[in-house]
Amino acid sequence: MSQEYQKVTEMLEKRRGELSGVIKRAREALRSEQERDFCKPLDGLDLTPSSVVHEPLIKAAEIATETIKEIDVALARIKEGTYGICADCGGKISPRRLEALPFTVFCIDCKKLKEIKTSEEV
What we know:
By secondary structure, the protein is an all-alpha fold. It is built from 4 helices and no strands.
């Protein structure tokens, strides 16, 4: 593995660890909130639905989980020797794009085409 890819691998693994921490903290907060809700007396003073409190935590965990999946794909592509090659057209993904989004698998042109197709389907 080249030194350039070694740095990318280290950065991706570090980010993966950070995101795993986000998921863990969200789970712990949800568990704590559920326990507190269970033990709370039903006095009618707190009418905030727990879903309003839980939704941001759940969304953060979902985003972190999806990003971890993308990071895992990028790490696998580094090992396979296909990192930096567009999964659609086979062209090279620009270094600027990889720097901004190191787990992308599409060049900017293919990504734009995918977004256009998706918006037309909706």
